[in-house]
Amino acid sequence: MKEMSRIVRTVTNFVYGFIIIFGFYIIVHGHLTPGGGFQGGAVVGSAFALLLVSYGSLNSKKFLKKDIFSLFENFGLILFIVLGFSGLGITFFYNFLANSGGWFGNTAVIGVNPGNMNTGGVIPLMNIAVGLEVLSAFGVIVLTMASAAEFTKKKENS
Amino acid sequence: MSSFVEIIHISTLVMMIIASFLAVVFKKLLPSIVALSVASLLLSLEFYLLHAPDVAIAEAAIGAGLTMAIFIFAIRGTR
Amino acid sequence: MKKIIFGIAFIIFFSFLIVSAINMRTFGEPTFSEMDDYFIENAQSETGANNVVTSIVFDYRGFDTLGEATVLFTAVVGVVALFRGVKK
Hints:
A: 0% strand
């Protein structure tokens, strides 16, 4: 697929970093503000789609690798399942880190408050795991479909 | 105050219906996809007005971003 | 004949939709439930997260989220297997 015009590429160079940082903000602050792993991963995936549309699939292969994406996806899903199983002393998916004083273990203030980053127990770790999985899943889907469109076009023209 | 919120709701829904109608009517494919994406973005605004910001973020990212990108890939592949 | 059958089926389906739309409760008044009150009262002290929606999604209903992640993984496996013949 050919790359788009110079205006689209310049705007993409300005914007895509901010979109990726906003997506990671939504993922990391999932237990304090609206959003979470799935929503932040979808925002980062839309930034990858923007890069692919504006630069074309051949040029994007230099900085978007499919193998790294699938590695991150497997890592996210395995981390999520391991976090679910590690509360198995009481129940499946038990929040064993909440209110314990260790990692993410501070007690939350009851009522309306701006929030403390160090609360939530196992929820921020699960947010990061699901965010990593959704991000790389959308990256793999968009990258595969872009190269498939390129391939069918080349095959029909020849 | 309440009537102002109602006016915003009704205008958002009417603009959604107009955008969906334009997505069917347009002859060219790329403007049709842009109209579909505008309808999805207005649906996300409606979710935000109904106090569901989680669903609004997911709808804006998937409906207006990724679906439009995949449709553009399909059009580029056929042309 | 086929048109008449389809028309009758459409009228029955549409009348079901209209009846359910008339019987719906008024806008902005959900059903009262003890579950909602329990979540709103105790979610902040039990899980320690300020966002009640996230604490329901990842803590109380964590098994549901595991299913969602598995569905997304299966979708990716399907897409990659469908386009496996595409050269780089």
